[in-house]
Amino acid sequence: MTWLILIGIAALASLLLIIRSAPKSSEKSRKSAYRSEDFLFSPEERVFFLALKQAVGEDYEIFGKIPVTELISARYEGAGSGARKTLERVANQCFDFLLCSKTDLSVACALELYEHPVSGKGPAPPADPLRAICDAAGLPLVRIEAGPFYDSEEIKQTIASVVRKDPLYLVESDGRREPRISSIEDIEFDP
Prior knowledge:
Elements: H1 2-32, H2 43-56, E1 60-67, H3 81-90, E2 94-101, E3 107-114, H4 129-137, E4 141-145, H5 152-162
Parallel strand pairs: 3-4
Antiparallel strand pairs: 1-2, 2-3
């Protein structure tokens, strides 16, 4: 009789172990179906981010990995099929970094890191559609060669040469344009 009790307890314990291990294996398979990245930026991008942060200081907010289509869209009613196709070619790309004004988060410029071609031989690279799109949209695009280190002062000068000083406000052809006064000395007062 004691043998039957011991066999029953052993069977119950085995059944309990099987039941407890089943959810763990399915939970483990659910966890292994996905993985998260530990870092937003690659090691090269992190090095550039630190140099960029030092270069722009407290002047701008820096954002990274922003999809192109979050900033640029075609005016479908006025855009030809060529413009739409060109935008579709870059729709899956992201700007590596964006500089935005600290006061209103208006976009000052987009930055991209690029790899320098190894040799000058061979066919010329195709025209860059992203550059053409950014130029047409009025978005300054700064391209900086990826490397093991960056000169913060050089980055600062490059950005200063292309960043627009005022926020970009596109005025439609039927919209109102406000006059601008560049200097108080230019104003003439009638006596």
